[in-house]
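// run 5 | inverse folding | seed 20
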């Protein structure tokens, strides 16, 4: 279970991790400034296992891989959005961070709700409202990349295309 930090549509990578903080590759340093331009308390309040829920086109903007790295290093268990910018979508799986698409969940989940996700079934449980929503199921190949903590580790462990 984790608490929801909810944002709107078109959250771009410069909002997720502003360019002025891209002078490091250290995930923990990036996490200190994650979402700072849209939510100055995010890095102080987010805890391991929390979730980000957002509207349309999450992760649009520049193709920086730092954005999903900053979110993952912040302790976020998964991002749930209506849909994603394609490069952010792929970068998230490449670094081993699960992301889900569910319009229903985004419409019904409120900021601060307590939710949990069953990644095998795609069921999102809203414990605050006692509701369940269906998300797209993560493809088996992507699950293996997430389990390996990213594409590089997956390949190092001998992963192959299926």
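// decoded
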């Amino acid at each position: 279970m984790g608490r929801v930090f909810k944002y709107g549509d078109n959250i771009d990578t410069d909002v997720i991790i502003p360019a002025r903080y891209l002078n490091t590759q250290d995930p923990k340093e990036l996490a200190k400034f994650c979402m700072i331009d849209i939510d100055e308390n995010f890095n102080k309040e987010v805890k391991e296992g929390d979730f980000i829920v957002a509207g349309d086109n999450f992760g649009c903007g520049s193709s920086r891989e730092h954005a999903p790295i900053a979110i993952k290093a912040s302790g976020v268990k998964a991002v749930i959005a209506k849909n994603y910018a394609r490069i952010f979508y792929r970068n998230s799986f490449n670094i081993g961070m699960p992301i889900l698409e569910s319009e229903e969940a985004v419409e019904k989940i409120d900021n601060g709700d307590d939710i949990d996700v069953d990644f095998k079934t795609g069921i999102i449980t809203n414990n605050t409202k006692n509701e369940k929503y269906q998300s797209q199921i993560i493809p088996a190949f992507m699950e293996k990349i997430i389990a390996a903590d990213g594409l590089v580790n997956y390949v190092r462990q001998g992963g192959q295309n299926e």
